[in-house]
Amino acid sequence: MATLLLTAVGSIFGGPLGGAIGALVGQQIDTAIIGGRKVEGPRLKDLTVQTSSYGTALPLHFGQMRASGSVIWSTELMEHKSTSGGGKGRPSVTSYTYSASFAVALSSRPIAGIGRIWADGNLLRGAQGDLKVGGTMRVHTGHGDQSADLLMVQAEGDGRCPAYRGLAYVVFEDLELADYGNRIPSLTFEILADTAGTSVGEIAAAILPEAAISDLDQAFVGFSIDQGSAGDALAVISDAIPIAVAVVGGTLTIHNAEPVPGFDAALLPEPAAANKDTQTADAKASGWSRKREPLPGVRQCGVRYYDVARDYQPGLQRGIGRSEQGDLQMIELPAALSAATAQTLAGNASRRAARPADTINYRVIEVDPTICPGAFVRLPVATGLWRIAQWEWQQDGVLLSLSACTASGFTSAATGAATVDPGRFNAAVDLARTPTVLEAFGLPWDGTGSSASPDVFVAASGASAGWTGAALLADLGGDGGALASLGSTGRSRARMGRTHSALPPASPLLVDRRSTLDVTLVGTDQALGDASLKQLLQGTNRARVGHEIVQFGTANPLGGGAWRLSNWLRGRGGTEWAIDSHTADEPFVLIDDALVQLDAALIGDAATTRVVAVGLGDTAAVSVSIADPAATLRPLTPVHGSAQLLSDGSVALTWVRRSRGAWPWPDGVDAPLNEEAERWEITVDDPSAPALRWQTTSAALTVSAAQIAALPTDAARYFAVRQVGRSASSMALRIEFPA
What we know:
single chain; 739 residues
């Protein structure tokens, strides 16, 4: 700051020469206040976004780390068109989604594999290796024999796509981008460079393979080097773990600057007194001198690191230092650690930083060739262990500069694992993908839109919230032939399951308070609720059990996704014909807005079409037929049937018409016909093999005595009345012969 200010002032008053003088003076002031220039090696930073710029250095990763990458190849966005809805007065919706194929470089050192992947902070790939969106992923580990990616070769041409040997990278093929604003998201990867973690010694050996490494066993979960030289990397580590470097016999040796407990150090000989003419403050007549510095200004150290318990988010742990006032020294360590390890390192650093320097200048006549700078020794004139910081050859001996040291591995009582808290954070949800559970069925017409086409609905769900929907297709031939797109299910999970037993018969005219039914839902996290009678009459808790539509008023949880349902309204929507048809293990589907209505124009003949679903968790396509496909087009069964024997032996039949779609029945107004014409078919015995058949256009028929007398003796004694609609006939109303 002073450099800029004094440069400007000097330029105003003295021109270029004044500016140069001002800059020189300003630099001296800045150096005194701020400090001189420092060469920086790898540093801890927040999880940065991925880049795609030329010349970006690719990092070296050790152990397990989370890091962003550099996009090295990409295709244009691929557009995908899908249409859903339409028919029955509903608009047809055409949606467009996009996917892309691209490659991301991760490490200039071979890796073992890839763990989780985060996209814009959310999990794109879970711990089980499952992608949360559509697409495929391939990992190239960066070994010397890896081949080029086939997709990249196909796009770029044979001979123009390198294999990137020595470079670990990931290729995404047709990755769906709808969840990320139809753009390539910012990705960070859990890089498994070494499956068993790493250590300081392994890192040093990798970046300095010709050096002799010893006593650097401090374990890291992971470590990254993304800038600087090998010396810069070791300098960053040495802020937390003291490292000594020396050259012995022409070989670079790197070891811990603090001896391990029980280290057997060599004993130096007695100090050599100096001649009177060569006595200095460094070594007096006794041959040695000792100097203790005052307490340093730093009283406590903190370590910033990547916390493995918090998905590698930056964490901070402080050591226990002196109780008096002092400075906090922050150590930026780009390593993945547990909170307990980080606090241990911070405690050891606090101990070293808060301890006053204790040095001895020690003169000897000769030195053992195995003793060199960095070695640990014992002295006959002082207790403890001392490290040779440097030596100087003089006229009458070798002057050694020694620094006091203590055994490494120090851990204070307050740094036990049980007392270390990494802190809270919001972890990304990692839910495993689950297979699709599918049901397709027709429902009675609700009275809205057109009544000329079937209302076919799909219920789709999964065992957990990890189910993210499925694509819907129509197998129009019903034999696994060509498939037509029906859109998608969306991500809403239908509440559906299977029954444990058969639902007992009951009257559709009364509230059934006796019957109970146990069902198990597909998802154990799903729930059913109670409803009052008023809510039931307004349509709450409608469900399809087998072929019958019911409503339940009470739902009691049994645990494990099982529920006991009771207080029923039966035969809803004109399905009283199915009350006696129940069996065990029937499909149960709650009818709500989670259902997906299919476009009748796309499904063709609902009686033969099969609905196919394919989701991310499906190893094979799920296919079901459409249950009760004529439910929408089938007229309702007539009611209040009556047979009266007349005096001439004939029988007068009457019944009351009901109308599909006309669920309200106002007083004084007949229900609308909702058919092209009123037509009735009356048979004696089963309509599929009747003894006699009549057709009429009114809800009444008189059967003559002669016709009744001509009936075969084995004919059943009942009439079956059905309304003939536009596309289907109703279920038969059974009217017994009069006595």
